[in-house]
Amino acid sequence: MSQSAAARPVREAGSRAEAVLAALDDEQRAAAQAVIGPVCILAGAGTGKTRTITHRIAYGVHTGVYVPEQVLAVTFTARAAGELRGRLAALDVGGVQARTFHAAAMRQLRYFAPRVLGGPMPALVENKLRLVATAASRSRLSTDRTSLRDLASEIEWAKTTLATPDDYPARAQAAGREPPFEAAAVAAVYAGYESAKQRDGALDFEDLLLVTAYALEGHPDVARQVRGQYRHFVVDEYQDVNPLQQRLLDAWLGGRADVCVVGDPNQTIYSFTGADPDYLLGFADRYPDAAVVKLERDYRSTPQVVGLANRLIGQAARRKGLPGLRLLGQRPDAGEPTFTEHPDEPAEAAAVAARCKALIEAGMPAAEIAVLFRINAQSQVYEAALADAGVPYVLKGGERFFERPEVREAVLLLRGAAAGGSEPGALVPAVRDVLASVGWAEHRPPAGGAARDRWQSLAALVDLAVDLVAENPSLDLAGFVGHLAERADAQHAPTVQGVTLASMHAAKGLEWDVVFVVGLVDGVVPIVQSLSRPDAVEEERRLLYVAVTRAREQLSLSWSLGRNPGAKRARPRSRFLTGLAPGSSPTAPAARRPAKRPKVVLEGEAGELFERLRAWRSQAAQSASVPAYVVFTDATLQAIAETRPASLRELSGLPGIGARKLELYGEDVLATVSG
């Protein structure tokens, strides 16, 4: 072979490497050229994160630094892993392993099971509910499918955070968990579940990671083989890593530092599943020689959307660790985001539906429009409004309202009750009586995610009954059931392309030309359960940031002062909009400006009630031997006096009313309000 022929592959590789870099901006190029770890890429929303990490891998391969088969890239969803593989193939890089944590662990454990477990790969528990039900029964807990789902979620949280059954009660309390039963009872079910699983000789999905980590930690021959195979690691969405996944990553690395992590500290929204952003925030502390590259050029959204996102996250409490990100919009200018206040939720939904219809009629594809809300139960009023407007829609990340099991069960019971006859003018009490038989009660949502979702769906039916009675006071139960059937039929119409309805969590990783972020009132955004914990409130701010950064061109934010037509218009706009919405002043960072005691000036009945509440607070504080403000602040008493809540549910929606305070003082406050 001639010298020129021998040099040709080298020149071709160099040419491919240069082509890889030519497709990147300056910051992306700096990240791509940092092929030897440790490397931390802080990638803001819309800054080309996936493009950067795939080009980094391609550059490493084409320059000869990486052998493709020795690279393992892990992410969190099969869709994301598939996208990585597709982009790497397009860059002429084959052989790189791009998998989810679980898929990578399963592949390795299946190979090493005879050596580590003494036999073939055990069966996998596809669904925990059967074993959880057995463990709950042995613990003499009365459960239904909803509470079983919440127990399974608590077990998953415990396992991903490496908490044992003995650890669980203290760890759950420290994390502010709201388990469906007493923590000790959940711990007993957790222990029983583990015993039942071992008797069956099975593993669950958390075990896949734990046992794989154990195989590497406890079997030197396995560790040598795996670490010899994989020498370079890339971890996508690193802000979402939990302690169990980090343990497996540490086992893969075996003390080496050739790892590149990619994440956005402003999009850490999954602490309820066990995700720990401290791994990303503390990366530079763990690896003092790490290269840290920031990607801040936002190619997704207009400068106006980007500016709002920056102002929103700029009001967040500063966190220790890596430097913050400030996005720089790269698209042409467009209209400013809009802020709209509505008298009630149906009016808000109708306005959004009308706007969607107008956009579609003007040529906007329906699939390029999204309506984002905080909780799935909020979808009902938007499903109805869009159906009434003749606008097709698709619901992402959950079942349509009338297809949810609890709603189908409730409608069946309402239909049966209507067959027995009902009195005109008594619709709302009749609906409440029927729904009480399936676990609904007029109080704040119960603990546990699935139980809370079920309660919120049933509460939406009650709210709908209240709305309809306001329009037609003579409506009876049979008429209400007929109305539900009409809505269900309209919303079951097949849709090929439609407006996307999604929760803010389900929207992460997606984007649309037009985004409506709705229901922005305190108690919803931030959610009421977060109000007693500052760290949880900050996570709610980041969740709103995620929602805002989904918009490419048009962004609308809205809220309603009342829940139902004719209701008192007293719900406070989300605190996160202060300093963003026109006419509101920005909030100074807490570290720089101490909060001032609000000046309360109330007149008439509200003033009298405020004074009664202060007198009650004084007695409660004296009984508990705490300062008065520890019971409730003047601002919270003012909100109570102005809104005069008539139920625990209404009280729970006010600022400063956390779960613990509702439990301690809720009934006393309502008694004081009622006189």
Keywords:
single chain; 675 residues; alpha/beta; 6-stranded parallel sheet; 28 helices; globular; disordered N terminus
Indicate the topology:
Layout: H1 3-22, H2 26-33, E1 39-43, H3 49-62, E2 71-75, H4 78-90, E3 97-100, H5 101-116, E4 123-124, H6 129-138, H7 145-160, H8 168-174, H9 183-200, E5 202-203, H10 205-218, H11 220-229, E6 232-235, H12 243-253, E7 259-263, H13 278-281, H14 283-286, E8 291-295, E9 297-298, H15 303-314, E10 328-329, E11 338-344, H16 345-361, E12 369-373, H17 379-388, E13 393-396, H18 405-419, H19 427-436, H20 449-471, H21 477-491, E14 499-503, H22 504-507, E15 512-517, H23 534-548, E16 551-562, H24 604-624, H25 628-631, H26 634-643, H27 648-652, H28 659-674
Parallel strand pairs: 1-7, 1-8, 2-3, 2-6, 4-5, 6-7, 9-10, 11-16, 12-14, 12-15, 13-14, 15-16
Helix pairs in contact: 1-3, 2-3, 3-4, 5-10, 6-7, 6-9, 7-20, 8-9, 10-11, 10-12, 15-23, 16-17, 18-21, 19-20, 24-26, 24-28
Family: Belongs to the helicase family. UvrD subfamily.
EC number: 5.6.2.4
Catalytic activity: ATP + H2O = ADP + phosphate + H(+); Couples ATP hydrolysis with the unwinding of duplex DNA by translocating in the 3'-5' direction
The residue ranges in which pLDDT falls below 50 over 5 or more consecutive positions are 1-10, 492-496, 587-601
Radius of gyration, in Å, reads: 27 Å
Class by SSE composition: alpha/beta
Please give the count of helices: 28
The main sheet orders its strands as 3-2-6-7-1-8
Helix residue percentage:
40-55%
Beta-sheet strand percentage? Answer: 5-15%
Please give the alpha-carbon distance between the first and last residues.
Answer: 100 Å
- Name the shape in a single word: globular
- Overall number of strands: 16
- Describe the main β-sheet briefly: 6 strands, parallel
Q: What is the arithmetic mean of pLDDT? A: 84
